[in-house]
Structure prediction request, 859 residues.
Amino acid sequence: MERFGENYLEERKLVKRWKGPIPAIVCLLFTLVIFYATWWIFQDPRGGMRMYTPYVGYMYTRWWLIVLIWMVYLFNYWPFKRSWLENSHPLLKGAVLTAISVGVLYVLIKGFFEGLLGNFGLAYFNPGQLMKLPGVTEFFAIEYAALACLMFAAIASWLSPAWIVACEEAPWQDLKQPGKGVSILIMTFFLSTIVYFMTMHSHMGILYYPWQYFTSIAPPYWEKFANTVSGNFHVSWIMCCTVSVWLVETIWERYPFNLIKRNGLRRVVAFFGIIVIAFAMHFFLYFAQELTWGPAIRGTRRAFAPDWRWLHVGEMAVFFLVPALFITFYCDNWPKKFSMPVNVIIRTVIAIIAAIVLYIFYYKTSYLFLGTQKGFSHPQQFPMIPTIWLINIWLVHHWFMDNWPGWKMVPKTAEEVAKDHEVKEAMIRDVRWNPTFGWGLGVGVVAGVAVYFITIALLPIFYGAINIIK
Amino acid sequence: MSENKGNISRRDFLKGASIGIVGGTIGTMLVYSYSPWRKAYFPKVKRKLADIGACKNIKITNISETSWFENAALMGDIKGAGGLLVNQYDYNWPPFGDGSGLGKGSYQKGIAKIKHLLPDKLDEAWAVTEKVSVHPENAGGYACLIEMEELDGKKHKYLLDSGWSYKWTDECFKREGIDRMLKNREIEALFISHEHFDHFWGLPVTLKYDPTITMVIPDGFYPEGLQYIQDAGHKGKLIKVKPGLNPVVPGFASFVFAIPIICRVYGEQSLYFNIKDKGLVSVTGCCHQSIIQFAETAFREIKYENDKFHGIYGGLHISPFEDWDPKYDDLVLSLGKYGFEKIGCNHCTGILCAKKFIAANYPVVRGTARFRSKDTAYLGNGDKITFGV
Prediction:
């Protein structure tokens, strides 16, 4: 029976072409070149297509990410046969699969959102419909429609992988493709639609004058809690959910949820656990801004506005995703020699430090080469666009091109696959309750609380010591 | 054996501790970070209460608030050129058009066509640029005259900004008698709020009548902007104001905000006037930093009459393109608590926003919608507003 790409990522062995860190460095350089070339062609405000308007470019970036996730995680590369995946040259695979992802992306945006939803459901998905409103210019009609589309994308980019990572494809895990992919796609799209209506629709409803009281809740229910009527409050935690899903999937190897033995319980705890982790990030990164820049002031603009602060939480969160993916894709999830909890904590600390360095580097230098502008809070400054654009290129490179040219793909033998499973299970078995573990856990919790308060005490001092924007 | 046992214990302890640290940190992040307890970490606002003095009154004449005449044309250009991050000198708008088309211009190519005509032959310069620029008929400009009286009766006149279109700005200057005041050297200084095309590119019109006028610009001008000041024929003193407070005369100070702005502009200068017995008045070009940020900054930085915000004049940069965003509603909902008694908004505030202010019962001073201003919801071209008179 044809398996298409089921478990392809697990069952491929990536063999380094050179020793040491050279393959990772080569691949980093290779992908950065692709990133910058494509950035210039598609996004850069000085370049070819100048899609960084910013919402148009952002919409395509977010949806491309989801299409890639759909192709690999939901559909397991269907309809491509396993033999084609294993035997084709990475460049050919990369070109063909990327072309398909772009085709799906175009049909999705132009066909589904603009054409179908925008003409027969919600006018704000279609710029043409919006331009019928008095005073709405073409530019903002396109931007508003793109905003609605990308807000939907933000939700889908959390829920689509969450159904695989947390829910482990249940209850369709034994279904053949494309039945499995279609089932999960419909389920996650359905959930995304519900979350969209409960979080983003009111934002769109008050975007138009007068407020659309009869079609959306206005002012929205989160106003008092979030100190803003803007849907950026939700963009923040949803973005944190996306980041949390991928942290759990990559550098955490689905830990700690994989310690739960009962399937149903594990899936439910993982799904909601990811949301809990996301809310912890959501609140903490907002607080971090209050500690460094001062409390937000409602009604003001830019760096002091609550809506921007919430948006910036999402922007900060995505900086963690970049090093986390790099560690998994190009560093083989180093380190692996300790117990799973210790490995995870070391990787997490590395990812946090790298994210902070990347954040400083981005705001210090990116305006010099991305065509963006100096400063944290320019209304067109969206670091999520270049970071997710880079992530998309890494996904293409890692999923479609087997890390070429740094690595060579060799299918694992059945014994090797079995050994991998055994090692994973042993790692899980290795974490078990005993009194010493319990003492460690207790001390760790106290230390974790201490880490938190030390961090918030040091943050303003650290921020004051570095001058990011001169 | 005992060593092995010790290792196992140590490993188990570390495993537990690793889980505990992550759990403890995440748990505290979740519970504490957005709780009311966190406010204990906020520093108390220390008011500097800088004394900028007080003045008797100010009178403001709106020379022009119509920076462009058709939103659709302007936004069409911005869309076609690649959006709001494109360098404003590249749009190929007048006076820096070079005939190469939308989004393909540059300062150097544009100024080369008119530099020899600046600042005296502006009709000729505009005729040249009209032929090679994108939508020259859409260019308007923003400028206002501020007449201020000190407590001892001494009077001052200042210009805030110098418009965009040479043709339109000159027409407006003549309509309000600014040309005569400049020729007579009655106007002491030209304050440029920021480098944007609609506030700054009409500079030669001011310099045509008074090339020696003192110019006060915010720190952050790009090299093209600084070069334009020279190329436009400025012969007077040029003061670049660093971010922060800049007292000018008793009762008047400017404040520079280091902020990035659309179309690749950086930094904005706004003006504070402290009116005796009334309170603080803010006069702004576009107020990209937001009027509430401006008010909060005043609260922190300076001392003003009765500790009260009295009035506003100028652009508030809320819906300049008649666009909207829920965050603007945050501003509309919040502005009331600052207690402004007289709101003379226009320009990039947006008509839609002015209507929302009126609906919220804010004390908006209505205009007359003359000289191509479009709505009486705010102060239009040729309208005047006074504070403390």
About this structure: The first strand of chain A starts at residue 12 and ends at 16. The CA atoms of residues 5 and 76 of chain A lie 5 Å apart.
